[in-house]
Write a structure and sequence with these properties.
- 37% of the residues lie in helices and 16% in strands.
- By secondary structure, the chain is an alpha/beta fold.
- It folds into 2 domains: 133 residues, Rossmann fold (3-Layer(aba) Sandwich); 64 residues, no CATH class.
- The strands form 2 sheets. The protein has a 6-stranded mixed beta sheet with strand order 4-5-6-1-7-8, sandwiched between helices. The protein has a two-stranded antiparallel ribbon with strand order 2-3.
- Helix 3 packs across helix 4 and helix 3 packs parallel to helix 5.
- The radius of gyration is 17 Å and the shape is globular.
Length: 208
Amino acid sequence: MGAEILKDISFNIEPRSFQFLTGPSGAGKTTLLRLILLSLQPTRGLITLFDADAARLSKDAITDLRRRIGVVFQDFRLLDHLTTYENVALPLRVQGRNESSYRAEVVELLRWVGLGEHMHVLPPVLSGGEKQRAAIARALIVRPELLLADEPTGNVDPTLARRLMRLFAELHKSGTAVVIATHDLALMDQFDTARRLVLGDSRLHIYE
């Protein structure tokens, strides 16, 4: 068994809250996000997600809970055989919605993130920043109850980063709890009312 990456961590993510998760590289930001998503299991301790004890959930129940979460990880996880539009629309298709009910919404969001000219191309054609924006759009299209984003502005220019952050802020105002992992202090300073969760020495420090 390797060394513990995180230990003695206890915190709540309140509904409709906004927080930044920060700390030096290797501090465990991505690990903590994956624990919240239940894609990793803790070696000890308790994770409660939407009032459910994660340790007692079946695989189907975990899948159902994850559908209430929007996720943006650094590896993007786009499907190469689907167009940008199809990747972003995929969560809605999984929900069983007809395309006629969501097409305009998907197109509008793609234009907002600067991918209006790339909605019909496949992911291998996209740059890293374009893939990141597609992943963000896919996470936001379902209007999740909880958004987990790992360095969502890391591959875009400052102007687009501010635009994406406004999109996250609007999502938050509509009722989504937002957790954004970042090391960009300037970005966090633009949202000085957000709570900061700071990882260091395997522990979590909370600044309201």
